[in-house]
Design goal:
Order of helices and strands: HEEHH
Distance between the termini: 56 Å
Shape: elongated
Largest sheet: 2 strands, antiparallel
Number of domains: 1
Length: 62
C-alpha cells in the first residue's frame, strides 16, 4: 500500500503569537527563510515594496 505524507507548515509570525495558521508563501532574504500566511505575506510584501519604491507601494498607498 502506498503512503502519502502531508507536511503542515505554519506561519512563523503567527507561531510567535501562539497561533497555528497555515503558511501559504515563503519569504527568503539572503540566508533567512520565513514561512508566512496570506496576511503576513501581504504585510511584508507591502513593507518591502514601500522601502524599495516599487509600483506596488504606489498602488497600495493611493
Amino acid at each position: 500500500m502506498a503512503r502519502t505524507v502531508i507536511e503542515k507548515v505554519d506561519c512563523d509570525a503567527c507561531l510567535k503569537k501562539g497561533e497555528e495558521v497555515d503558511a501559504v508563501m515563503k519569504l527568503i532574504i539572503g540566508p533567512d527563510e520565513y514561512d508566512l500566511c496570506e496576511r503576513h505575506g501581504e504585510k511584508f510584501r507591502a513593507l518591502l515594496a514601500e522601502a524599495l519604491g516599487t509600483t506596488t507601494a504606489i498602488t497600495q498607498s493611493a
